[in-house]
């Protein structure tokens, strides 16, 4: 979805860095070539977990896309999302679920999953934002994750529920 949206968006200076070595990488490389994105998409080898935060902090925005599966109907709480928020990156989330942390945090833009035109519009919207607007979204996400996903907060909520 991200690659197709990148090809479809009006912002021709937008680019993507894809980090990791999952089973889909070769297919994504081929798709990037087919879509004429060779100069706008870079594929990076996996790095140790300790280097991921440094990588994320070098990105302007972070993308998270999920397929619309029944498992997500109860909410989405992915480690990747928490990492993005901790890195203070605005998030382009092609996700849906009852627990919409991105919107709750005012930390990015949420689109329906696998909706190429919506993701393309979000890329264009991010491209039109100032550095300050992007930084505010990033700070909002970090504040939200600290207030809602910290283990001390979660433990206190759990214990409150037992009483």
Give a concise summary.
The chain has helices at residues 2-8, 25-34, 49-57, 79-86, 101-105, 116-127, 131-148, 151-162; strands at 16-19, 41-44, 62-65, 91-94, 108-111. With 163 residues, it is of the alpha/beta class.
Strand content: 5-15%
What is the count of β-strands? 5
Helix content: 40-55%
Counting H and I runs of at least 4 residues, what is the number of helices? 8
Mean pLDDT: 91
User: Main β-sheet, in a few words?
Assistant: 3 strands, parallel
Alpha carbon gap, first and last residue: 45 Å
Largest sheet: spatial strand order:
3-4-5
Q: What gyration radius follows from the Cα positions, in whole Å?
A: 16 Å
Low-confidence segments: none
Shape: globular
Overview of the structural elements:
The chain is an alpha/beta fold. It contains eight helices and five strands. It has helices at 2-8, 25-34, 49-57, 79-86, 101-105, 116-127, 131-148, 151-162; strands at residues 16-19, 41-44, 62-65, 91-94, 108-111. The strands form two sheets. It has a three-stranded parallel beta sheet with strand order 3-4-5, with helices on both faces. A two-stranded parallel ribbon has the order 1-2. α4 links the parallel β3 (62-65) and β4 (91-94). α1 packs across α6. The longest helix is centred in the last third of the chain and has 18 residues, at 131-148. The chain starts with a helix and ends with a helix. The model has no long low-confidence stretch (mean pLDDT 91).
Secondary structure elements and their pairing?
Elements: H1 2-8, E1 16-19, H2 25-34, E2 41-44, H3 49-57, E3 62-65, H4 79-86, E4 91-94, H5 101-105, E5 108-111, H6 116-127, H7 131-148, H8 151-162
Parallel strand pairs: 1-2, 3-4, 4-5
Helix pairs in contact: 1-6, 4-7
